[in-house]
């Protein structure tokens, strides 16, 4: 079996049934799995999903302070820009295109660290990266950790129920797993530490990174706009942290086939290009599934790609040493054939109307 077939911790309800079909658990089964995997008293190996949601819970008070104490139209605009554009684009730049797909390379470790910490730290890299490799290998199939066909809650709680790594990998498999994260600069656990904590990253290093990141950004925001701005932007980060968990359900057609001819050229899965995530975060998802290792996914003229603009800027400044851009491949392999086919169909239709 390939490593990606068993690298994730399988939920109690399983990935597929005896006939090989996707298991679609009930709401009760999903919630039972969710709370079981957050129980660090029962098993300390549950620490990483617990830690991931702890950060979300810690952001909630900031959100309420923004709404009930510091609310103004100016702060609302700041919250909108930070949550929808800055946090979203950073997720695409860092977690998606770099950590998972290695679509570009940093000149040195400083610029990697700089980009990693451009925003408030919310999503653990390990939770995102390993599971996203599986998502591409098994997109919309049993084993896809956020398979939209299993429903909204299946995707929304996937970071706890489906995305953590398996807890009993062999030493050889664990070593292979660390290679998927090697370029990110994250210092992995030894195999002995992995068997103790059930994760690639050590909880001590994860907590220290979290505390330093939040302390730095709270201080910066306070210097720029006092506690009002700091609470507003931390609350906005919390809003994004919840909202981003809905993306893959929406981005794969909510379990149906929402692909459109001329817009979604990848026909191998149910991914779709959505205007809003594309504009605010560069997440042209159907394009991305065609060329996952491309630093650009906004291939058409109207497809704004803020994440790619950042990568291009960093390249111009010398912080990024190289990147991959598959726009020309997209145009040649998919868009031009589509336009030619459309022109042929239009001609045939006109001839048919003339003959009739």
TrEMBL record:
Where is the protein localized?
Membrane
Q: One of this protein's GO BP terms? A: fatty acid biosynthetic process
Keyword field = Fatty acid biosynthesis, Fatty acid metabolism, Iron, Lipid biosynthesis, Lipid metabolism, Membrane, Oxidoreductase, Transmembrane, Transmembrane helix
A single MF term (Gene Ontology): oxidoreductase activity, acting on paired donors, with oxidation of a pair of donors resulting in the reduction of molecular oxygen to two molecules of water
Report the membrane topology from the UniProt record.
Multi-pass membrane protein
Which Pfam families does the UniProt entry name for this protein? FA_desaturase
List membrane-spanning regions: 47-68, 74-95, 216-242, 306-323
Query: Does this entry carry the keyword tRNA-binding?
Result: no
Q: Which PANTHER family match?
A: ACYL-COA DESATURASE, DESATURASE 1, ISOFORM A-RELATED
This chain belongs to which protein, by name?
Answer: Acyl-CoA desaturase
**Biological source species:** Hufsiella ginkgonis
């Amino acid at each position: 079996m390939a490593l990606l077939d068993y690298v994730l911790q399988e939920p109690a309800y399983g990935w597929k049934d005896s006939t090989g079909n996707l298991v679609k658990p009930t709401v009760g089964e999903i919630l039972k799995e969710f709370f079981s995997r957050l129980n660090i008293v029962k098993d300390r190996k549950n620490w990483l999903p617990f830690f991931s949601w702890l950060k979300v819970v810690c952001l909630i008070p900031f959100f309420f302070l923004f709404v009930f104490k510091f609310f103004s139209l100016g702060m609302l605009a700041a919250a909108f820009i930070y949550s929808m554009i800055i946090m979203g684009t950073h997720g695409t730049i860092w977690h998606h295109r770099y950590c998972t797909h290695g679509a570009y390379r940093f000149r040195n470790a400083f610029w990697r660290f700089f980009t990693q910490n451009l925003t408030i730290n919310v999503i653990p890299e390990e939770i995102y990266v390993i599971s996203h490799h599986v998502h591409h290998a098994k997109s919309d199939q049993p084993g896809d950790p956020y398979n939209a066909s299993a429903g909204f809650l299946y995707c929304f709680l996937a970071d706890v129920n489906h995305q953590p790594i398996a807890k009993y990998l062999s030493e050889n498999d664990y070593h292979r797993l660390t290679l998927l994260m090697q370029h990110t600069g994250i210092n992995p656990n030894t195999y002995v530490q992995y068997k103790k904590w059930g994760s690639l990253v050590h909880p001590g290093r994860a907590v220290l990174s979290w505390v330093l990141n939040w302390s730095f950004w709270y201080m910066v925001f306070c210097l720029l706009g006092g506690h009002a701005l700091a609470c507003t932007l931390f609350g906005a980060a919390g809003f994004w942290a919840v909202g981003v968990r809905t993306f893959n359900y929406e981005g794969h057609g909510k379990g149906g086939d929402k692909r459109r001819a001329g817009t979604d050229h990848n026909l191998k899965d149910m991914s779709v290009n959505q205007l809003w995530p594309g504009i605010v975060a560069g997440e042209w998802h159907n394009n991305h599934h065609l060329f996952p290792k491309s630093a650009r996914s906004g291939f058409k003229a109207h497809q704004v790609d803020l994440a790619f603009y950042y990568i291009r800027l960093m390249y111009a400044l010398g912080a990024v040493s190289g990147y991959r851009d598959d726009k020309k491949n997209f145009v040649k392999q998919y868009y031009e054939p589509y336009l030619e086919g459309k022109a042929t169909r239009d001609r045939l239709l006109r001839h048919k109307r003339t003959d009739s």
